[in-house]
């Protein structure tokens, strides 16, 4: 028995693709009072066509198919690097997964897996967030232990905004321009398109760039909550459904703002670093969920940031 999943409130976030696919593999799933009651004597391989290349659903099917009898084929699978890492992990344990990183993933069921030591891939969204931190503060940064290929769409947009970005085998360095320039348009898409998880941070950056940028959020229906908070800090942003128009301002000013979700919260930290005066960000539990020691790292980079466990009274 599982509770319905949580996560950031960035849209309805249905799990129909997960449930339908698991049922196709032979699982019995009942939805009752906010819980999922799942049962299966044995799962059997199946051909599964996803309506959308959902990352979570692709991962869930792969995991379920590892011990299923026979072969499972996922079509229109997600191609994110994390799927490739999952394939590598399972195969090193004795599983039989192939095709990760393409739209068709095939899983041959096995009887058992064995122990393995596996290092997961570096977090491309955390890396992207620190690149934007340097860009928004007119600074320089070198990131090591990153996989530049995973950040290609982000690097492309950062270059478009005037940043100098150099890439080595496992390192990325960025030098901010004297004046950031707007990017014409940014559309979030499944990988290798621009990641939805970097949209908020890029919006903070474009808030202080010269010119107008248009953002289109195609993955999640309600992922512009940070726009209102950035506006409190002096940003000029208009949102209409899934489209946001950002007109860069000369300077943001510190304000009391609230993190409404994980990446939106990170965007507020970035905006605060570039803003005049002090910013207080509330509800930082969202940020803590996706960034290890972000305050310590930003402090190490020269930012002035204090983390408090209790809300600040007016
Ligand atoms: C494609 C994409 O950018 N995926 C991101 C998404 O993955 P995550 O796995 O959370 O999201 P999905 O890739 O599953 O969702 C993408 C889209 O599919 C829809 N959907 C999903 C499952 C389902 O059963 N039914 C359904 O309609 C979602 O509502 C959403 O509109 O958020 C993660 C955490 O922020 C990121 O790491 C992933 O890179
Ligand atoms: C939305 C995110 O995470 P979650 O899916 O856990 O809510 C995120 O990582 O930006």
Summarize the structure.
Helix content is 30%, strand content 21%.
Task: Please tell me about this protein's structure.
This protein has 314 residues and is α+β, with helices and mostly antiparallel strands. It has two domains: 107 residues, Enolpyruvate transferase domain (UDP-n-acetylglucosamine1-carboxyvinyl-transferase, Chain, Alpha-beta prism), CATH 3.65.10.10; 177 residues, UDP-n-acetylglucosamine1-carboxyvinyl-transferase, Chain, CATH 3.65.10. The protein has ten helices and 16 strands. The strands form five sheets. A four-stranded mixed β-sheet has the order 4-5-7-6. Strands 11-12-14-13 form a four-stranded mixed β-sheet, with helices on one face. Helix 8 links the parallel strand 15 and strand 16. Helix 2 packs parallel to helix 3, helix 4 packs parallel to helix 6 and helix 4 packs parallel to helix 8. The longest helix is centred in the middle third of the chain and has 13 residues. The N and C termini lie far apart (43 Å). The model has no long low-confidence stretch (mean pLDDT 96). The chain binds uridine-diphosphate-N-acetylglucosamine and phosphoenolpyruvate. The site of phosphoenolpyruvate (PEP) has 7 residues, from helix 8. The site of phosphoenolpyruvate has 7 residues, from helix 8. It catalyses: phosphoenolpyruvate + UDP-N-acetyl-alpha-D-glucosamine = UDP-N-acetyl-3-O-(1-carboxyvinyl)-alpha-D-glucosamine + phosphate. One of its GO terms (biological process) is cell wall organization. Pfam families: EPSP_synthase. Belongs to the EPSP synthase family. MurA subfamily. It is found in: Cytoplasm.
